[in-house]
Amino acid sequence: MITMKKPLLWIFASLALGAALFLGVIWIMASLDEESKEQEASATDGHSPIDSKEEGRQEQTGFIGGIEQTIQNDSIKTHDAALDTLHKMTHQKVTAEDKWGAIPMTEANVRAAKEQISQLNIQDKSDLLEILAKWEREDFSQIDHDHNYFWKKQGGTIGKAYGIMTEKQEKEFIENNFDKIPKKK
Question: What is the 3-state secondary structure (H, E, C) of 14-67?
Fold first, then answer.
């Protein structure tokens, strides 16, 4: 009989350990769910989701500073200047964590950038000209990727693009940042 009790003791101990593990997993999952709810609540700072959306839209379309209306003759003389100019041009069309500086995405500015970059002997020249060729065709379907290409090449840590503005957002951005609305590109 003593030999029968040992297997039952092991079975009971195994079941108890399994139940304890199960309850522990349930407790951890409940704690994580509670933390997630607290983070969501603190992210909106007591504002309704509608308020947060409005603030996010305003953050994307409001005045950002560092505005240049046109690309001046011979303003793109270096690789860094080329990246900076094209990066600023994307700000009219992308949603990003943070933006500073903008140049209107007009036909004249795209043409000026292409002409000046074509004259340079710089790294990434073919990539930059390929991007400008897309913009000349009014293909902005990858503008957020274009932005992040420039941003990464410039060593960006804050301000990564995460999407493309709607037409309404872009119009608001233009109105808030440029003296007059340039011809839509």
Answer: HHHHHHHHHHHHHHHHHHHHHHHHHHHHHHCCCCCHHHHHHHHHHHHHCCCCCE
Burial of 135 (0-12, 13-18, 19+ CB in 10 A): buried
Q: Give the C-alpha separation, 36 to 47, whole Å.
A: 17
Burial grade of 74 (CB within 10 A; 0-12, 13-18, 19 or more): exposed
For 154, list phi and psi in degrees, rounded to 5.
Answer: -85, 5
Identify which of 95, 115, 91 has the alpha carbon closest to the alpha carbon of residue 103.
91
Cα 47 to Cα 40, 44, 59, 97, distances in angstroms:
11, 5, 16, 20
Q: How far apart are CA 144 and CA 139, in angstroms?
A: 12
Q: Where are the domains of the chain?
A: 2-43, 58-177
pLDDT per position in the chain (185 positions), as tens? Answer: 556 667 777 888 888 888 888 887 788 877 776 666 555 554 444 433 333 344 444 466 777 778 888 898 889 999 999 999 999 999 999 999 889 899 999 999 999 999 999 999 999 999 999 999 999 999 999 999 999 999 999 999 999 999 999 999 999 999 999 865 445 45
What's the whole-model pTM score?
Answer: 0.66
